[in-house]
From TrEMBL:
Biological source species: Enterovirga rhinocerotis
Biological-process GO terms, alphabetical: pyrimidine nucleotide metabolic process
First-level EC class: transferase
GO cellular component: cytoplasm
Domain of life: Bacteria
Name by which UniProt lists this protein: Cytidylate kinase
Gene this protein is translated from: cmk
Xref: InterPro entries: Cytidylate_kin (IPR003136), Cytidylate_kinase_dom (IPR011994), P-loop_NTPase (IPR027417)
Pfam families found in the cross-reference section: Cytidylate_kin
Length: 207
C-alpha cells in the first residue's frame, strides 16, 4: 500500500509520515530532502540555483542512501530547495527515483508536495496536512532554535509565506491537494492527536 502525505512547509507532514511508516513497518521517504540535496550540491559547487541544466544533472545522479540529513535541514537550504524545485528537469529526474521507492513490495510512505497528484496518483491513501502559517512558523522557529540556528519568528513566517506562494504557483507540479485527498488541519492538534486522526484515515484493518 502506498501512502501519500502532502502539505506546505512545517505543517507536520514529515513527522506524521515517519510515524505512520514506523507504525506499519513500511519504509518512508521525505521527498523534500531530495530537493534540498540538489540545492546543497549546487551551492557546494558554486553554481547558481537558476542553473537548471546543472541542477538536473545533480538530480539524475542523486543517491537516496547518501542523504546527509543534518546539513539539509537548515533554513537556507529549505529556501534554496524551493528555488531549484521549479526546474522541470529536476522534477523529472527525481520522479523515477520516487516512483521506484514507492514501488517496493508492500508499499511505502512518501511525503512532499506532489506525491498524491504527480508522483503516486494511484496511492491508496492520500492525506493533505495543513496548519495556519503562524502555527507552522512557531513550530519551525522552535525546531531551528533547538538546533542552535539563529533566526526570528518573523523571518520564519516570511519564509513560509514566500515558499507557500512559490510552491503553489510554479507551473511544474504545483503544491495542491489531490482531488481524492483527505484533509488534516493540525493547527490545534499536537503530534499525537494528528497521528490518531491520520490512523482513522487508513483503510479498515490496516492500522
Ligand atoms: N502536530 C504538531 N504539533 C506541534 N508540533 C509539530 C506537530 N507536527 C510536527 N511538529 C513539529 O513541527 C516541526 C515541523 O514538522 P515537520 O518537519 O514534520 O514538518 P514538515 O511539514 O515535514 O516540514 P518541511 O516541509 O519543511 O519538511 C518539527 O519540529 C516537528 O517536531
Ligand atoms: N515533493 C516535493 C517535496 C519538496 N519540494 C520542494 O522542496 C522544498 C523543501 O521541501 P521540505 O518538505 O523539506 O520543506 C519545498 O519548499 C518545495 O519547493 C517539492 O517541490 N516537491
Amino acid at each position: 500500500m502506498v501512502i501519500a502525505i502532502d502539505g506546505p512547509a512545517a505543517s507536520g507532514k514529515g513527522t506524521l509520515a515517519r510515524r505512520i511508516a514506523a507504525h506499519l513497518g513500511r519504509p518512508h521517504l521525505d521527498t523534500g530532502l531530495l530537493y534540498r540535496a540538489v540545492a546543497l550540491a549546487l551551492l557546494d559547487r558554486g553554481l547558481p540555483l537558476t542553473d537548471s541544466a546543472g541542477a538536473a544533472r545533480i538530480a539524475e545522479a542523486l543517491d537516496v542512501a547518501t542523504l546527509e540529513e543534518d546539513r539539509l535541514r537548515s533554513r537556507e537550504i529549505g529556501e534554496a530547495a524551493s528555488l531549484v524545485s521549479v526546474h522541470p528537469g529536476v522534477r523529472g529526474a527525481l520522479l523515477d527515483l520516487q516512483r521506484r521507492f514507492a514501488a517496493q513490495p508492500g508499499g511505502a510512505v512518501l511525503d512532499g508536495r506532489d506525491i498524491g497528484t504527480v508522483v503516486c496518483p494511484e496511492a491508496e491513501v492520500k492525506i493533505y496536512v495543513t496548519a495556519s502559517p503562524e502555527e507552522r512558523a512557531r513550530r519551525r522557529f522552535r525546531e531551528l532554535a533547538g538546533r542552535g540556528e539563529p533566526t526570528t519568528f518573523d523571518d520564519i513566517l516570511a519564509d513560509i509565506l514566500r515558499r507557500d506562494t512559490r510552491d503553489s504557483e510554479r507551473s511544474a507540479a504545483p503544491m495542491r491537494p489531490a482531488a481524492d485527498a483527505r484533509h488534516l488541519d493540525t493547527t490545534s492538534l499536537d503530534a499525537d492527536a494528528a497521528f490518531a486522526r491520520a490512523l482513522d484515515m487508513l483503510p479498515a484493518g490496516v492500522a
